[in-house]
Amino acid sequence: MPDETWPDDLRPDELTFDELTDLASRALGGGVVAANDEFFAERENLLTPDPAVYSPHTFGLKGQVYDGWETRRRRKGSHDTAYIRLGAPGVVRGVVVDTAFFTGNYPPSASVEGCRIGGYPSVKRLKNADWFPLVERAALKGDTANSFAVAGDGVVTHVRLRIFPDGGVARLRVHGVAVPDPALLPGVFDLAGAEVGGRVTDWSDRFYGSPRQLLLPGLAANMGGGWETRRRRDDGNDWVEIALGQPGVPEIVELDTSHFKGNAPGWASVTASDGTVLLPRVRLQPDTRHRFRVAADRAVEAVRLDIYPDGGMARFRLHGAPTAKALKKLKASWS
């Protein structure tokens, strides 16, 4: 990663798509609404945040147990289908169809389509939706994270995965930038949250845990659900830079060290990308959700969280009100 200086550009456009938020992840509330078949392995496995696992010679009543979605051998028809509700609607930048551990039983090809449909549609309504291609039918390899870049700027709420003709897929990742429905936003919310488009753009270290987990909704289940750096042996400190999902005026910053007991940072500070100090260096306690009032008189687009000297943090929140310009842009995206 770059050296420990504040960059001239937060470089979100230089991130590869698989470093963007997985909009379909169960960690964001994504769900598999329906699938025409799941005889060998349940459809819900597709969206599990953790990588697939495999235990050889582990047999159930329907054969080898797989951590993924697996359909029976098709004798009629052309494909099997799964309908997925994204945990956060947004613009899709890339899709990963991961066939991990499926070797003699993976689909030879697959396609992924998207649609935008409000509310909580029934399966029948989803089947009749106006679907558009995200990934045209493409060849897959077995036991491989098959990656496909996606172009376009339309907001997607649901995706449809088709596998030809049948087989097993371990995970489906739908990477992109969340674009929340402005009609459903409260007046004050977490401006940095992954659900509203917040994304990590740079970091000093992520040895034990990804900094992207800082922006996930809900509470971390354990230390593995947060960001943790290795132990520093120099005079520096660790940091992470975050592009807010929605620019706005921050009011409260939350620094959550839950589960980090012997390895929480000693101190932390938060600085806006224009150099404004939102939270001066403050002492932290282990295993604690800290909340601090922020003295801000202007809108912020990006922030840097510094921890001293190193350690782990479960969640970062920056509650505030979005700007009128940000809301207008959101409304245009959904119009």
From TrEMBL:
InterPro entries (alphabetical): Allantoicase, Allantoicase_dom, Galactose-bd-like_sf
Functional pathway: Nitrogen metabolism; (S)-allantoin degradation; (S)-ureidoglycolate from allantoate (aminidohydrolase route): step 1/1
Domain Allantoicase: 29-177, 197-322
Protein encoded by which gene: alc
Keyword Transmembrane helix: no
Family assignment from sequence similarity: Belongs to the allantoicase family.
Organism of provenance: Actinocorallia longicatena
The reaction(s) this protein catalyses: allantoate + H2O = (S)-ureidoglycolate + urea
Source organism, top-level taxon: Bacteria
UniProt xrefs under Pfam families: Allantoicase
SUPFAM superfamilies: Galactose-binding domain-like
Protein name: Probable allantoicase
Coiled-coil parts of chain: none
Keywords in alphabetical order: Hydrolase, Purine metabolism
EC number(s) on file: 3.5.3.4
